[in-house]
Structures are given as structure tokens and as C-alpha cells.
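User: Predict structure, ligand iron/sulfur cluster.
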Amino acid sequence: MPAWLDELNREVISCTLCPRLVEYRERVAREKRRAYRDCEYWGKPVPGFGDPNARILVLGLAPGAHGSNRTGRPFTGDASGKFMYPVLHETGFANQPNATDRDDGLKLKDLYITAAARCAPPDNKPLPQELANCAPYLDREMAGLKKLKVVVALGKIAFDAYLHHLKRLGLLSSKAPYVFKHGAKYSLPGGCVLLASYHPSNQNTQTGKLTRPMFVSIFKHAATLAASLDDRGGAQRRKKTRSADKESPNHADR
Ligand code: SF4
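Assistant: Predicted complex:
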């Protein structure tokens, strides 16, 4: 893990900026769900997970109380992860379909996962102030993940979190033109494409609002976009190099 990410994750794990979430994440970890009464819960903020050289970022909402708040890794040990990781495996981003705990051998390639809020919120609903408190961590992740090309936002809160990130950078004046809709794609200032998806929560997957083929299609689309943006970047770099060569007084000597 690069030093910047190690340092960031240490800060995240010890963060206590949101009193309501600190109380909730620790209480859930103490009281536990009956099915997990023999587990030692993580009960802290959950840092991001994946490949620091990723071209694709998955931006989720927040840890699940008995999922990643228990296991300490995003989407690990709950129904959302059971739905998502097999899809990431099928589309070539994960080395295995299962995600049960931090020592299960799961590795991600070309994909990094983070969230708008890093502590489990009651009813899965972080407050605006809690999202604002957590936003600087997202800014630092975005600054460190230099190869990012595509942001897959899982749900409207994550979608807005990325737009707010661009506003904080001064790259976007208004988020009004960008409407959340499953499959919507926006090329945004800063060089990344934002791809919207329904969140793989039980509420969406059990009702058929988000099906496995729909989710597979999102990640296939993300892979295609990342590859085409890479090609475009390469072509632009080659064009720039050629123009620099022409302008260079040494050009004729080469
Ligand atoms: S949600 Fe973010 S800012 Fe708030 S306590 Fe957790 S890690 Fe800190």
C-alpha cells in the first residue's frame, strides 16, 4: 500500500468527528446481532479497499451496521456484498466472488471501493453534516488515486457526494444538470466519467429494481469506458509529444 494511503487509512480508522455515528457504530459492535454474537465487531470507521492503481472507483453510501461495521472492509459480510462481489468477479475486477472477512484472500484489480460516509449510520442514513465531515477523506482518496477514469456511484447519495467533491475543487458550479438515474453517464470536469447505478441493497435487489444482469452491465460499461479514456489519453499524449517534437529546435537532429 502506498504511504499516502496508509496514512489516510490510519486517520480514517481513528476518526471521531461525528458523535452520533461514533455512538451508533460502537453500540452496534457491543450489542451485536444474534447471528454474529461470537464475532468480534470492527466497530470503527471503515477505510477504502482495493487497487491503488485503479482506473475505476466504486463509491458507496456507508458501512452496513452488521456488514462492514462488523468485518472492517467495504461490502464485506452483508447482503450487498453478496450481490456485488460475484459481479466484480464475473467482470474481472475481483479474484474471487466471496467476501466474508478481511482475511478471506479477496483482491481487487483496477478497482477501488470507498464510501460517502465511513461509519455505519442508523437506518443507513447519514446526516448532511456527517457527509460533510467525511468529505475531506474522499477528496484525499481522489487526489491519491491518480489513474482514475470512471466513478461508479451506487445510489443518489454517492452520486451527489462525487458532484460535491467536484464543487469543492471548483470544477463544477452547479450539480443541477446532473440527474441521478440508473445507467446515466456524465463526462465531468476533472477528467472522470460518472456512471450512476442503483445501490445493491437488499431493498433494491430483492424487489428486482436492480438485477444481476443490470449490475453486470454497469461494470462492463465501466471497463469499456476506462479503456477508451485510456486510449484517448494516450492519443492526446502522443499528439502533444509530436507537436513538441516539431517545435523543438533539436527536432531535425533526431
Ligand atoms: S463518518 Fe467519517 S467523519 Fe464521521 S466519524 Fe466516521 S470517519 Fe469520521
